[in-house]
UniProtKB/TrEMBL annotation:
PANTHER family: RIBONUCLEASE Y. One of its GO terms (biological process) is mRNA catabolic process. The lineage of its organism: Bacteria, Candidatus Komeiliibacteriota. Residues 33-177 form a coiled coil. One of its GO terms (molecular function) is hydrolase activity. Signal peptide: none annotated. The chain crosses the membrane at residues 6-24. This is Ribonuclease Y. It comes from Candidatus Komeilibacteria bacterium CG_4_10_14_0_2_um_filter_37_10. Belongs to the RNase Y family. Pfam families: HD, KH_1, RNase_Y_N.
Length: 508
């Protein structure tokens, strides 16, 4: 019984606890809901208050913005009105000027018509007067003009001659003075030696016994060398020496190297000769390349195609009138550079044009045509500028088109005309003097002609009764022009024309 009692009691207590907990939880829940609603009401109230403040501030700012915008619009309207007034004033001024111009144009048109009318009247009067004069003088207009000009020419001949001489003397003195200063400075700053070569090369032998070994059995050695190098080997009675003859300097040099190697080696037979020639060709190619590279390095020229460098190096073995062409090209480049600096020309064009002006001579023995045209085509092929390639042609033109062309022509003449730079054969020298005298003797009134100073000067004696002082001046110019057109020569030739009148009387 007691156990049941306690169980019932526990159930009752548990039920009462559950009921009390439920009621307590419900009470607390109602309190929290009321508290949340009160907080939500507070938040809404605060938000509405802030909204009102924000709206008030926005209204105030919008009012300020509108006032500022109204002020800017008002200013803009004032500016537009001011500009409109200025445009109206300008339009009015332009209309007025246009009316003035139209009035002036009409006035000028009227004046032009009056001038044309007056001109026609003057022409009519002039024609009438000329007709009257022709009737009075019994001469036509052309005949009277010819007679007048002839009389004036005869009277003014001496005065004209004096004026010509005076102008020539003044201009020539000033030009020569400045030219001599510039050229003397350029020549003093550049000094090069010149190797005078001919068409033969001497090779020294250790003994005359070596001549037989070079000839070989039945001449097979010498025939092999001549066939593979393209030169002629001359073996005569000259002790311990043989000659290598050939027009092409590169082939002569190849043969010389081959023979020197064979003589030093001592083994001379066709097989060894072929191997030695191939070895000499390789060494010669390297030497040519090095010569071109050293030349460009000396002048400070870069960016040149290697094939063009090889062509430049070939000039080391090319001569003209005995003058080494590579040394000549270097000298022309340096002279052109100095002259370009003095005259304000393009220094880079003059330097490159000077070093490559005779590049055509590197292949002119293998390619048909003159070396100026060949050189121009070569430089264009390797991408050099037109003004640089033109100098290949300009240095042989009578009147180059550019200042750089004139400079290159002058530098080329200086290098070729320097004493000792070139070497002529005796026959060619005599032929050149004869041609020079023949040109002067071809003119009427020339008595005697003498070429002196190695062809640098020609003295022309004229017949004084046929050539007066005025005609002598013109004749000297004509002789110089004909020499320039018909003859080829380095430097310049001075034409010294002499008119001498001798009057002899005897007192007895």
């Amino acid at each position: 019984m007691s156990t049941i009692f306690w169980i019932v009691a526990l159930v009752i207590v548990a039920s009462a606890s559950t009921l009390i907990g439920f009621l307590l939880r419900k009470y607390l829940g109602l309190r929290s809901v009321d508290s949340a609603e009160r907080r939500a009401d507070d938040i809404l109230t605060e938000a509405k208050t802030k909204q009102k403040q924000i709206l008030l501030e926005a209204n105030e700012k919008s009012i300020l913005v509108m006032e500022q915008a109204k002020g800017e619009v008002s200013d803009l309207r004032k500016d537009l009105q001011h500009q409109q007034k200025r445009l109206e004033q300008r339009e009015t001024l332009f209309d007025q000027k246009l009316l003035d111009l139209e009035n002036r144009q009409q006035s000028l048109y009227d004046k032009a018509k009056r001038v044309e009318a007056l001109k026609k009247e003057i022409e009519d009067v002039k024609s009438q007067q000329l007709q009257k004069l022709e009737k009075i003088a019994t001469f036509s207009q052309n005949e009277a003009r010819d007679i007048l000009l002839k009389n004036v020419e005869e009277k003014m001949q001496n005065d004209l001659l004096g004026r010509i001489r005076k102008l020539q003397d003044e201009n020539n003195e000033e030009v020569e003075k400045q030219a001599k200063e510039i050229l003397s400075v350029a020549i003093q700053r550049v000094s090069h030696s010149h190797a005078a070569e001919t068409t033969t090369t001497v090779i020294n032998l250790p003994s005359d016994e070596m001549k037989g070994r070079i000839i070989g059995r039945e001449g097979r050695n010498i025939k092999t060398i001549e066939q593979l190098t393209g030169v002629e080997i001359i073996i005569d009675d000259t002790p311990e020496a043989i000659l290598v003859s050939g027009f092409n300097p590169i082939r002569r040099h190849l043969a010389k190297r081959t023979l020197e190697k064979l003589i030093a080696d001592g083994r001379i037979h066709p097989g060894r000769i072929e191997a030695t020639i191939e070895e000499a060709k390789k060494e010669l190619a390297l030497d040519i390349k090095k010569a071109g590279e050293d030349t460009l390095y000396e002048l400070g020229v870069t960016g040149i195609d290697p094939k063009l460098v090889m062509l430049l190096g070939r000039l080391k073995y090319r001569t003209s009138y005995g003058q080494n062409q590579l040394l000549h090209s270097v000298e022309v480049a340096k002279l052109s550079t100095i002259l370009a600096e003095e005259l304000g020309a393009n220094v880079a064009v003059c330097k490159k044009g000077g070093i490559f002006h005779d590049i055509g001579k590197a292949v002119d023995q293998e390619v048909q045509g003159g070396h100026p045209e060949i050189g121009f085509d070569i430089l264009k092929k390797f991408g050099l500028p037109e003004e640089v390639a033109y100098l290949c042609i300009a240095h042989h033109e009578d009147a180059p088109k550019t200042l750089e062309g004139v400079i290159c022509k002058v530098a080329d003449a200086i290098s070729g005309a320097r004493p000792g730079s070139r070497k002529d054969s005796f026959e060619h020298y005599i032929q050149r003097l004869d041609e020079l005298e023949a040109v002067a003797n071809s003119f009427a009134g020339v008595d005697k002609t003498y070429a002196i100073q190695a062809g640098r000067e020609i003295r022309v004696f004229v017949k004084p009764l046929e050539i007066d002082d005025y005609k002598a001046t013109i004749l000297a110019r004509d002789i110089a022009d004909k020499i320039e057109k018909e003859l080829k020569y380095p430097g310049e030739i001075k034409v010294n024309l002499i008119r001498e009148t001798r009057i002899i009387e005897y007192a007895r």
